[in-house]
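Email to the structure team, subject: Cholesteryl ester transfer protein model.

Hi all, the expression group asked for a predicted structure before they design truncation constructs. Nothing fancy, just the tokens so they can compare against earlier work. One-line instruction: predict Cholesteryl ester transfer protein, return tokens.
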Amino acid sequence: MCWAGRMMLGTLSILLVLVQAAAACEFGPFPYRGTGIVCRMTKPAALLLNQETAQVIQAAFRNAKFPNITGERSMRLLGRVAYGLSNIQVNDLSIERSEVELKEDDAIHISIKNVTALFKGSLTYGYAGAWFLQLFHSVDFEIESSIDLQLNINLMCQKDQVAPDASDCYLTFHKLTLHLQGDKQPGWLKQLFTDFISFTLKLVLKREVCKEINTVAQTLTNFITDFAASFVRDKNIIVDISLASDPVIKARYIESHHKGLVVYKNNSSMLSDSVFSPSLLTESRMLYLWLSEHSISSLAAAAFLDGQLMLNLRGEKLQELFEREDTEVQRKAVQRIFQGTSYNDSVAKVWSLTQPQISLQPEGTVVRSLVAVEVSILLAGEEPLVTLYMEKEIRVTIQATYAEKKLILQPVDSSVVIKVFKCTADPSGEDPSIQTFLQNMVLVAGIPEATSGIGSALTSLMNSRGLDLFDIINPEIITRKGYVIVQLDFGFPSHLLLNFLEKSL
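Reply from the structure team: attached below.
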């Protein structure tokens, strides 16, 4: 969910995959109270994202709407001279380098060095001489410029979210040279207009470029906020990622603390205290996501209430489950349970009877639940014939990994206790061979099949939100008592930014 969850103007924006604020943006005296999710982006990530700054600056220059510039000045002998610059456009823009610095408890400082740009347009001028002779001329012009930009991005609270404020923007001009009609040699006309147009032009460039940079940053933030909201939403299940406390800017990382409450059909879980401490996260990886046991457990509870913890198996999947071991005991048990019916004419239904109990431990995620299994034979024109029903208490420890853009859930320790057993092949329940076979089948094949199915479903859900578009490098999922940490490095897919800028601006 974090993400993974852009560029350095997007450094803030990508952080906002999880940065959304409470409507009032007012927090209590306890900085981590009520924190269920924490996102930390370190300096290496900021440096990587800063490489994309050029794309944003170029978009800002391209999309800046430069107004017509008009002015008037009295000149000796010539009288009153009026001028106007119109149809101003930017060409041949390049950036030498960009630097980023995280100022502790302050802001994100970005220095963009030597932005060279060629402005083109039309210059119209006219003057009235001492003898009231009026002349009007129009020529094409080019303006060569070399500019440094300094951006100080602050976190602002706007309504129900934190947004970047990039209005603290400075332009330093190292070069601003006017050429008329392509003539690069100085002349009286060029000298005349360069002297008193330059100052006005600098003010207009600063105002329009800085305004557009702030607009691009806000647009990216809105996009990321909408993306974050959709990423943590699945039909009736929503994760509240509004802020639990103010975002933190340190010299080595940016960190945001979120409520992480799960909302299901307008009913929300409650979390008053948190076990989070900044010392739980390091600074060696680019991105960290800290999730509390409460948030994970609440998600499982919501999935249970929504009827999502259910699995139907038939055909090859059903055959694979019941014929994992080719033994005499297995063949006899299958024959008695399915009564010689084809797997294609049978269905096994597995569902959770009680809300799963989740416990995060160093060895993995421990899940406890009462699970029902029902095997039915499908009869043409008749109600399905239930040949097996059992309820079993399951305890399983699961370790999670993420590789090749897939979430893999691996059970490492499992136990099964059958609580209810009804089978037409053994109505008295006195034949231990069938129960023993089923118990072994659940341990060896059933639990791995269920966890694999959940992993595949979660992978599909995350990829449908675009997670597979990102280059996630060496991700680690580490469970500890009461929380889980996801830590990773990443590569930024520049084409996503380019596509977004082309469609949105």
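The CA atoms of residues 177 and 371 lie 77 Å apart. Residues 188-231 form the longest helix (44 residues). Ping us if the truncation boundaries need rechecking.
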